[in-house]
Design brief:
14% of the residues lie in helices and 56% in strands. It is mainly beta and 236 residues long.
């Protein structure tokens, strides 16, 4: 990773460290008698906020092709209603963002959320899994092969999967750590091509640039973002 990319990822890493320190501080401030502490019970509700860092681990688009080593900030807010001790439903919103110089990546994702959990330690701790199908709006702005800024905005169907661990630190608060994957699928976009050094081109009779082999599209059929997050949940 070059110095430019290293500098652009520092704000994201600082934000992740601050969130982690706040969670540790919360666990000491809000700790109570263990007899009063349990995770959300049937009929209860909770609001959770998570933040972390990740990368695009599969597929290439105009931003991740140019900045494959640049970290991506993950931010998630979710509401859940506990239908049973191990099943909850709700709504989730996720933001993904990154930048390197003047190049930007912005993604917004929202969808209904199903949460399944395995309770432990008299309902004070749990392993959980969430599934969220929904709407993904992808946007980036990068420089093309001629150093001209090019913007791309489009909406797709996507799905988010998360595996995590949470534990109660007070009657209303719990801490979470999870790994999640956001994946979207779309068709190739012929207007966004990567020009690689090992590809040969020629000019046809109409003066247009042609390629001897199939083009390498910036947008492949699938793209996967993977992130590690920490967060806090409020039960009411």
């Amino acid at each position: 990773m070059n110095n430019k990319n290293r500098k652009t990822t520092l704000p994201h890493k600082r934000a992740f460290c601050i969130i982690l320190l706040l969670l540790i501080f919360s666990s000491s401030v809000f700790s109570q008698s263990q007899n009063d502490i349990t995770l959300t019970e049937q009929g209860g509700s909770e609001l959770s906020v998570n933040g972390g860092l990740g990368l695009a681990t599969k597929g290439k688009n105009s931003f991740t092709s140019e900045h494959s080593g640049t970290s991506i900030f993950f931010g998630t807010a979710a509401y859940h209603y506990q239908l049973a001790s191990s099943v909850a439903v709700g709504l989730s919103y996720k933001f993904l963002g990154s930048h390197s110089g003047h190049d930007l990546l912005r993604c917004h994702f929202v969808g209904p959320d199903l949460k399944l959990r395995y309770l432990m330690d008299e309902h004070r701790q749990a392993l959980y899994f969430t599934l969220t199908p929904g709407y993904l709006h992808y946007a980036d702005r990068v420089k093309d092969d001629k150093q001209h800024p090019v913007a791309f905005n489009h909406s797709y169907f996507a799905a988010n999967f998360a595996f995590g661990y949470e534990f109660a630190v007070s009657r209303h608060l719990s801490l979470q750590i999870n790994a999640d994957m956001l994946t979207g699928r779309w068709g190739a976009n012929p207007d966004y091509r990567v020009f690689s050094d090992n590809t040969q081109y020629y000019i046809d009779d109409a003066g247009k640039l042609r390629e001897y082999k199939e083009p390498n599209y910036m947008f492949e059929p699938s793209l996967v973002f993977f992130g590690l997050n920490v967060g806090i949940s409020y039960r009411f």
